[in-house]
Amino acid sequence: MKSGYRIAAVSFLNTIPLLEGLADRTGVCLDVDLPSRLAGRLRDGSADAALVPVAEVLAGRTGGIISPTGIACDGPVDSVILFAPGDPGELNRVSVDRGSRSSVALLRILLTELHHVQPEFVEVEPRPGQRLDPGEGILIIGDRCFAQMAALKGENPGNLIAHDLGAMWKNLTGLPFVFAAWAAAPDLVARRGLDAACELGDLLTAARDRGLARLDEIAAEQAAAGRLGRGGEASPEAIAYYYRKSLRFVLDERARRGMERFRELARIHEVIPAGPAPLWLCRGAEHAD
Fold first, then answer.
1. Are strands 93-97 and 120-124 parallel, antiparallel or unpaired?
2. Fewer Cβ within 10 Å of end Cβ, the chain: N or C?
3. CA of 28: how far to CAs of 8, 23, 48, 234, 236, in Å?
4. pLDDT > 50? residue 287
5. What is the rounded distance in angstroms from the CA atom of residue 66 to the CA atom of residue 43?
6. Residue 6: beta bridge partners?
7. Domains plus CATH for the chain?
């Protein structure tokens, strides 16, 4: 293997299977960082690859997708949810987490295309179980979404309804949605060469495959550590369901079509900066099926 690679990712539940064995790999430095900082790590050269929101890739802020690996769904995703006391078409204000850039862009598209509304979006720190007034909604993603579901089982102020963005996207397009992908630093190929970039991509693909081979064990480990799974349940079964049914980790041809459709709609609705078609580096990223 060529000299060391620097990889950055988050420690969310949905990312754990993609990191299998990387921390123990000689020549690999794996850093866990905040989601909002990952794309910046690529641009400032402190990471060679990072698991970044798809909006960063589509805006042209990376060196391209380095592995056919990411976080996607093909229907309900169970962890990217709009909570509202009524129909989404009645919303006039939506509170969002500042770290949910791709999900916010997706929600703007879905509300316009499916419900013909364009509510005000406000950045907040989500609080599980918080009360919402009529006409208000809140977008919660990732592990916080499971905490919200757990809180609503005890008490549901305002009779909030969960609207799953993965299911809404599938209803609109019939395609998977890609939330995040392994992307290269903009200067990686110039700095290290294409062979090194492809070697790094192969390492990430291999880590994904190791994780997929032991999803049940990972689910049990995460449950033992107190993590919540689908529906806010604290059980290995709920986490295993999330890994096996809610998420897709391989970016195949249908996922690529979903990304392209999102890019088209994002350009029409002007929800993310327009960038060139994403570059898929290396053999694995080019030929995933």
1. parallel
2. C
3. 11, 7, 10, 32, 30
4. no
5. 15
6. 29
7. 5-72+177-286 (3.40.190.10), 80-173 (3.40.190.10)
Identify the band that residue 170 occupies on the pLDDT scale cut at 50, 70 and 90. very high
Show the tokens assigned to 256: 């690529």
Residue whose structure tokens are 């299998």: 20
Six token digits for residue 203: 């390492």
Can you tell me which residue has the tokens 């609109």?
Answer: 172
DSSP 90-138: G-SEEEEETT-HHHHHHHHHHHHHHH----EEEEE---TT----TTEEE
- Any residues with CB less than 8 A from the CB of 161 and at least 6 apart, and which? 83, 84, 85, 86
For residues 86 and 39, what is the distance between their CA atoms, to the nearest angstrom? Answer: 35
User: Tokens 């604290």 identify what position?
Assistant: 234
In sequence order, what are the beta bridge partners of 28? 5
Structure letter (DSSP) for residue 278: P
Structure tokens at 50: 């990072």
